[in-house]
Amino acid sequence: MNETIKEKLKTLTTKPGVYLMRDRNGEIIYIGKAKNLKNRVSQYFRSSPKPKKVQTMVNNIADFDYFITMSELDALALESNLIKKHQPFYNILLKDGKAFPYIRINIKEEFPSIEIVRKVKKNDGEKYFGPYFAGIDPRELLKTISMAFKIRTCKTKINGNAKRECLNFSLGLCLGPCTGRANKEKYAEEIKKVIRFLSGNDEEIEEILRKKMEVASELQNFERAIELRECLKMVEKLKQRVVANLPKDVDKDVFAFHTDGLSGVITVMVIRGGKILGVTNYQQTDAELEESETLFNFLCQYYSNVIVPHEIIVSHQINQELLCGFLNKKVHIISNPIAINSTLLKMAKTNAVEYLEKSLEKEKANYNSTLGALTLLKDKLGLKSLPKRIECYDISHISGTNKVASMVVFTNGKADKKQYRKFKIKTVEGSNDFACLKEALTRRLKRLIDKNGESFKEKPDLLIIDGGKGQLSSCYEILQDFGLEHEIEMVSLAKRIEEVFLPNSHIPIILKYASAELKLLQRVRDEAHRFAITFHRELRTKSQTKSILEEINGLGKTKIDALLKAFGTTENIAKASVEELMLVKGIHKNLAHSIHKFLNEEH
User: Fold this and answer.
1) For position 267, what pLDDT does the model report?
2) Is the dihedral of CA 517, 388, 420, 399 positive or negative?
3) Of 116, 126, 206, nearest in space to 155 by CA
4) pTM for this structure?
5) Residue 242, SS3 per DSSP
């Protein structure tokens, strides 16, 4: 905790409000609300145990601001608006929540259209169905509706004067109101059927689709019959989500919170028309809050993005009056459910418990293969510090042609592909891997010393050389030439029996087979090899392409480069017409004919 934070903590008020956490660049990384600003903000900087994500966030806090509000309800509203405006990195929930798709029927239109939307406009008078989670694709649902009811999915302005029919009309997927042929009363009846289907009535659409499939089969229109069969499968998938003993017109959400004291999960079960549309899980990091307060905060954020049903079932007692005030809607909130509601909550709780267990296992496995492996590597190799940034180099060529070097970077034990770099070897003649490696490393370290370019400004903690003691000694001399041997550590990994060599020792270290630290070294080494080979293949393909084009009279380097820039490959150039070739700078009519003829005649 820095002095700025210490001083600000002393001035905090006990009133409600909103706080904004900032990093050292002044960027807002987290926004929260508090009933008591002093208590809530101070909690972050106490020495009590915290989940890793919270601790990471706290480590990045350099300053904070706060706004005092008149009430907790005002704080909720301000927090929601500020999160939407700034989208802080650690306020993950709203970034995920806004992506939920809905099906909207624009019932205010004379001939209502149906579409998929991701943003709900509350109180706009239109009909929304959803949200839809993984397992139900709203696009497939929309196609099923079109096949059964012929409702328009276009955004065309309907005036009945369209000059020609649209594709959906000709395919029998729309009644064609744009052409003036649709009967308004019949169209309205079809819309009612769609609403009944999306509200939970499956029998009607199932019968319609089955009859259409039988007709298509009789007419030997097997392609249409197969499409209708797929639509029936979609309806069957929805039927399987029906909750026993639950009326078809029931809409409710179920929220179950489970925590182990540090980490927590909230499972959300969405029920619409008596069917479970989806179950999703959210990891929570407000470990120091009461469970009921964590759930309450979640509900406020969650419902800023989705439509509020008439009934909400929750696993903990919450402030119902405050939540209804924030949502500006009277909602029936059940915290002690009975009968079927109790069964639904148990299902959600089971999901939450299982998800948290799996998440913690995955987190542990991830730690063991990354930061845990780095810690073991540091200890086993006797490194001075934890190698948070590792760089590894490899060479690729065929008989000394198209020589390249790769540089891969692992940050905190994970591949950091944005930091990868490629080198074309410029000074080495023939097949000399030692010399190629020395050139690549020299160029990299020179740019570090000269502070030449953003891509090479980060100093590695550890350099890994693919090879034995000889390669290591050769490369370590370069490190010494730049005076970096005390700042950057270097090891080599020999492939034969995976020996690890250190600069000042002739005796290799043999890491335990299949150990996390050895697997990490192998991952880094193998990734450098893969990246080098990929770059070499790209260069070789480009070189071969150029050599073919160089056989054409009148084509020099500049024109070849222009052609490749325009078309990408020799195959694409061959497919291009004379007129298309003439659009490339420097390619006149006669030359275009020559190129086209040369690439399309048999050699």
Assistant:
1) 94
2) negative
3) 116
4) 0.62
5) strand
